[in-house]
Amino acid sequence: MPIWKVTTQGPKRIAETKLRGEEMLEEKLEEWIMKDPSLLGEPLFIIGRQVIVPEVKDRIDLLALDPQGNSVIIELKQGRLKDPVDMQGLRYASYVSKWSYEDFESQAKKYIGKTDDPDFNFNGLYEQFCAKEDIREVPSINTDQRIILVGSEVKEKLGSVALWLNEHDVDIKVVEIEFFKEGDSVLLQPHIVVPVPVGRFSRTGARRPGDGIRPWVVDGKIWHLEKKCGPKIRDMLLRLDDLIQDNFDVDGPMWNQRIYVSYKIRGHNWIYVNTYQSALVLDIHASTGNFEEKELAKRLGVQVFDKKESLSEKIGLPSSVTVGDEGEGSAWIKLRIKEDFDLDSTAFLKFLKEAYESFPG
After folding, report:
1. pTM exceeding the 0.70 threshold for the entire prediction
2. Backbone angles phi, psi at 323, to 5 degrees
3. Closest by alpha carbon to 136, among 283, 251, 310?
4. CA pair distance 129, 79, nearest whole angstrom
């Protein structure tokens, strides 16, 4: 689809530019994606460029993580996307599937240039990335693998293969990029061609959201109290709600989200309460420098949360806390509370009051 520029003389079609004609090499496209990965239509946390795969001594163009914890193999090709590139992406995904947390941490260190920095915190950076996408319960890394293929023209055979893989639950995306020239400026127009885009009218006549499809929208309170929380955790959530509403000037609770219940101060999120069968996980927004992890754990009588534990180990942990710096004077305190946690303790209420007073919004 061409791009048109509206001028005083009427619409003017902008000339399409061929990749080779303008000497836009694969390397240049890599740089643009590194600077703004949303060019590929989604948020991505880039952790590697020209990543060596030891098993085959080959290189992945770009390696990234998405907000769901999946590793993302990004392969870019100059000109037309041809047949072997899909097999190349699948091969890389199979190798990366075996990588551990430490492999990703090591790769991120190299990419960011922190190889010799003992204070480098890979998990902290990934948590910040997830927080920007409004994900408070940070997922385990490399839970699954995805492939994104990028080029200026998709060959029919490759498109057919990619579509078949996508329909059979292999997470592969093909992005076709058109280049246009206007004077000395180059314009890019990405198109996601696989998976096939959904038409804007595809929901016309379908059931409205909430008609049994999203019960948390119909009645979020019932959803969280009866569907997500176990009996003891349900009582704790109700007690926590009383505590917050009795002591603080907040808007909430907002029940209409699938994963969490939230409270706002002056229109900005202060606390997310992520609900589970056997725990509540509180993400509390505060100013940087007001809370030290070990001291806060001691005050509340909980453990320091180990960010490197596996998901199953995290679920089995007792009540715990971690403090993460989000930058720009903002911090998130993650407090995981189990049935043994005393919500009525003086220490907990004092902590909430300090967090409320330090709210940066």
Report:
1. no
2. -125, 125
3. 283
4. 32
